[in-house]
Structure formats: C-alpha cells, structure tokens
Amino acid sequence: MRAQTACLVSLSLALHLLLVSNVHSSNSEGDALQAMRLRLEDPRNVMQSWDPTLVNPCTWFHVTCDSSNHVIRLDLGNSNISGTLGPELAHLHHLQYLELYDNEIKGEIPHELGELAKLVSLDLYGNHLHGQIPKSFAHLKSLKFLRLNDNNLTGPIPRELTSLTNLGVFDVSNNDLCGTIPVDGPFSSFTPESFENNKLNGPELKGLVPYDFGC
C-alpha cells in the first residue's frame, strides 16, 4: 500500500513538472511573440487578440500550436504589417512555419532565425528586407521551402545553403543579389526563375543572359 502511494505521488509530481514545463515554454513563446508585436505596426489590428495576460498564445489569431501548446505556425502573410524583425523569434523553438510574406517589413533578416531547427517553411517574400541572406540558415536542416523573393537583398547566395538536403523550393528572384549561383546540393534542381532579376551569374541560369558582376 505504501509503495502504491509512493508511486502515485511520483506520478503526480511528474505530471506537475510536465505541466509547469509546458506552461513555462508557452509563456516564453508568448513573450517572444509580444516582443515581435512591439516591433511592428498593425493598421488592420490582425494581432488584436494577442493578449499577454493569457497562459499561452495558442488562442491567438494567426498562431497555431501543437498538442503540447508549443507554437508551430505563425501566419501573418498579406496582413499589411510593417516594421522590423528581431532576434526574439529564435525563442519559438518548435516553430515549423513562419509566414510573413507580402507585407511592408523592412530591415535585415535576423541571423537568429537560423536557430529554428524545426523550421520547414520560411516565407519572407514581398517585403522591403535588405542586407544579406544569413549564413546561419545553413543550420535549418528541416527546411523545405525558402522564399525570399521580391525584397532588396544584396550580397551573394551563401554557399553554406548547399548543405540543406531537404530544400525543395528556393526563390530569391527580384532582389539585388550578386556573385555566382551555387551548383551543389539542392541547387542543381532549382529553376532559372528562382534567381532571375538579380546580378547573378552561373551556368544554372540555363539560357538566361548572365550578369558579369562580382560581389
């Protein structure tokens, strides 16, 4: 009887610790989203439901969580938001989809996004982002979709991205990128349209007239 009681106490303690862990994680993710919100202008009030007093952000509009209340998806595409992105997004450790396309976001892409190890899709196209593509993206080994087209990005395409073996869709068209297009890894299968309207060169352009620009 004593052993059974001890077992029940241990089980109860384990469940309590698990719940506390999940709440702490969710609060941390909520704090990260609130920090992001403070950087952004939101004229349509699409983030109006983002109430920081709630236990976790899983009831907020445009936020999707898994069964453990971890944020796995953020959908703010075509929301008319503006402002900049910051390093706090790296605290969304379980994030799989980051959809911020077709907005008015400016500034540089935070290199901390390379810490989102579970990220499958990163869509930042159709904004006013400038600076270089972070080399840290090479750490996103689960990444399948990377769309950075229609921004103001400069510099070369990082060679490190050739290690992303799961990358199936890559689009950096309509930027101001320069240098040579990588040929290794998944880059051998990307279409010329993925690179057009930049200052890029390389045989991967396959018939398009390459620019003779360095970086």
What are the salient characteristics of this protein?
Leucine-rich repeat, LRR (right-handed beta-alpha superhelix), 215 residues, alpha/beta, six-stranded mixed β-sheet, 1 helix
Please give the count of helices: 1
Q: What is the overall shape?
A: globular
CATH architecture annotation: Alpha-Beta Horseshoe
**SS-derived structural category:** alpha/beta
Helix content: 10-25%
The strand count comes to: 13
Quote the beta fraction. 15-25%
Major sheet, described briefly?
7 strands, mixed
Which series of helices and strands comes N to C?
A: HEEEEEEEEEEEEE
Short summary of the structure?
Helix content is 18%, strand content 21%.
What this model shows, in words?
A seven-stranded mixed β-sheet has the order 1-4-6-8-10-12-13. It has a six-stranded mixed β-sheet with strand order 2-3-5-7-9-11, with no helix packed on it. The model is unreliable at about 5-25 and about 205-210 (pLDDT under 50). The chain is globular, with a radius of gyration of 21 Å. The protein has one helix at about 1-40, and strands at about 40, 65, 70-75, 80-85, 95-100, 105-110, 120-125, 130, 145, 150-155, 170, 175-180, 200. It is α/β, with parallel strands linked by helices and about 220 residues long.
